[in-house]
Design brief:
Blueprint lengths: L11 H6 L5 E2 L4 H6 L3 E2 H27 L1 H23 L4 H18 L5 H29 L4 H26 L1 H20 L19 E7 L4 H12 L3 E5 L1 H6 L1 H9 L3 E4 L14 H19 L5 E2 L10 H7 L3 E2 L4 E2 L8 H8 L8 E5 L5 H16 L1
Parallel strand pairs: 3-4, 3-9, 4-5, 6-7, 8-9
Antiparallel strand pairs: 1-2
């Protein structure tokens, strides 16, 4: 499964903005087994920029003393010699450290040469731009790390961030006037709402949106249902497919035999809260969130003998405290990237028109039981999945 992108780049810039890419690592066996490796795009960029920067840095003093022609003529062999000597002089334990130290040195040179003209000034601007983007990327990585804090530390941190952001809006309003304060508060609210109401958003913590490999994962929410669950299980058996059923705690308690049957047939049960409060879970506080997730977790474990490892919020709308509480309970959060709104749409053709086009390997499909069209939609998705995988 794919929750977030870690492309193993040396720099924060390429880890955040570089995309998945390929990894460039040394051929040395120890390096292959122990180092982070490098993002291939990062390797190519640094392989061009660093020698070019070194050439310009060496050519500068040579041309000022010996003249332009002689200086540049000597700069090329001098740069070649420096490129071969510097790795030994730095004595770095890995290729990654060598590139990182060289990048810092190039950035410091750029700051020193920021007012220069010609090639030196142009390269200085490039390296300063890279440095600024690296700073932004480092902030993003630091934010992602704090969003992985679980339990009480994660809850306290999120409350503090919430308070600081709104306090900043108030201070801006007091200092620059109320329009600035209102605008800042509106921006804060928009960012928080997007992070909460967008099921696949990673801003508040990691969320599985796709899976690795050549499979299509079918997930079925809102069960168990006395009418639909047996029919859906038979359809899945007919196609030899395993699914994840995200179940509501109260329904599991009301229909324990169905939950156990899902496990017996080789499927997985995920946590879908105790009561499925779809209208209010997005704004729930830490104590209510803990109750909804924790109580459902306990009911499923008691009845089936298996503790869920995955959680899905009602309608996919997490709140500020979902991630630290779910993590403390041993849960990871799963969203989807294919849905047909079958919980509200009663025409199966419209539902399938949203799911089936471009359905491919690695997709996570969201379906629901306890709907009039559950069996028809699942059958069509299973038929399509067989074609895509075969």
């Amino acid at each position: 499964m794919n929750a977030s992108n870690d492309n193993r780049a040396v720099s924060a810039l390429f880890r955040v903005f570089g995309g998945a890419g390929e990894t460039k690592i040394s051929a040395d066996a120890r390096e292959c087994s122990e180092s982070r490796g490098m993002h291939l795009g990062e390797y190519r960029a640094l392989s061009v920029l660093m020698p070019l920067t070194l050439l310009v840095a060496i050519a500068g003093p040579l041309t000022s003393r010996l003249g332009t022609g002689t200086g540049w003529l000597l700069a090329f062999p001098a740069t070649f010699l420096a490129l071969n000597v510097l790795p030994f002089a730095m004595a770095c334990k890995s290729q990654a450290w060598q590139w990182w130290i060289s990048s810092v040195a190039c950035f410091l040179w750029a700051v020193w040469q920021r007012h220069a003209s010609g090639a030196a000034g142009l390269l200085a601007c490039v390296w300063i731009g890279i440095g600024i983007m690296n700073f932004i990327a480092s902030f993003v990585l630091a934010w992602q790390a704090t969003m992985r804090w679980s339990g009480l530390p994660g809850i306290i941190w999120r409350i503090l961030v919430f308070i600081v952001l709104h306090a900043t809006a108030i201070l801006l309003g007091c200092h620059f006037g109320w329009p600035w304060g209102v605008a800042c508060a509106a921006l804060v609210a928009a960012v928080i709402c997007w992070a909460i109401l967008n099921p696949g958003c990673q801003w508040l913590g990691p969320v599985y949106r796709t899976i690795g490999g050549g499979e299509i994962l079918i997930t079925i929410d809102d069960g168990p249902d006395p009418h639909d669950t047996p029919i859906l299980l038979d359809l899945l058996d007919k196609h030899g497919t395993r699914a994840i059923f995200f179940m509501i705690g109260e329904k599991v308690r009301a229909h324990p035999a169905l939950a156990r049957e899902v496990i017996r047939r080789g499927h997985e049960i995920g946590n879908h809260t105790l009561t499925h409060p779809q209208a209010s879970f997005w704004c729930a506080g830490p104590w209510r969130t803990r109750h909804e997730i924790g109580a459902c977790q306990q009911i499923i474990a008691d009845i089936t003998g298996k503790r869920p490892r995955l959680f899905r919020a009602p309608v996919g709308h997490r709140n500020l405290f979902t991630h630290p509480i779910a993590s403390a309970l041993g849960l990871e959060i799963m969203a989807w990237n294919r849905r047909g709104y079958d919980a509200v749409e009663k025409d199966p053709r419209k539902v399938l028109a949203r799911i089936l086009p471009d359905l491919g390997q690695g997709d996570i499909v969201l379906l629901h039981e306890a709907t009039p069209i559950a069996a028809e939609v699942l059958a069509a998705v299973l038929d399509k999945a067989e074609v895509e995988i075969s």
